[in-house]
Amino acid sequence: MSCVAVVYWSGTGNTEAMANAVLEGAKSAGADAKLFTSADFSASLAGEYDAIAFGCPAMGAEELEEDEFAPMYENCKESLSGRRVALFGSYGWGDGEWMRNWEESVKKTGADLISEGVTACESPDDEALAACRELGKALVS
User: Residue 17: CA atoms inside 13 Å, Cβ hemisphere, count?
Assistant: First the structure.
């Protein structure tokens, strides 16, 4: 059975809703999946999972949230090589540059980025939530 971690930061609840959909998809595909806020996840936990989905909204000038999420992600990067990784998050402005930059960052770790990141403008609609559920299923190997 695949072990999947879904790790997110959410300020408004939009990315949290997406995280719950990713978790639902992973569980429906038979994974032992757990949900973590970025405050509750660390590099030491990353090694316990076959796959990790990271979720963070665009902040500031299209960047990852810098106080909690970005430091956790930076600490986990060395643990990602060879792992299946998926990305998701919401945004309210810009064109998704933060997700493209994040995808490039993940690729440089040697992780298996399973698809393009799933994004939602503001609150995720039914289509975005369905894409998140599919992302969760795709993490299960």
Answer: 17
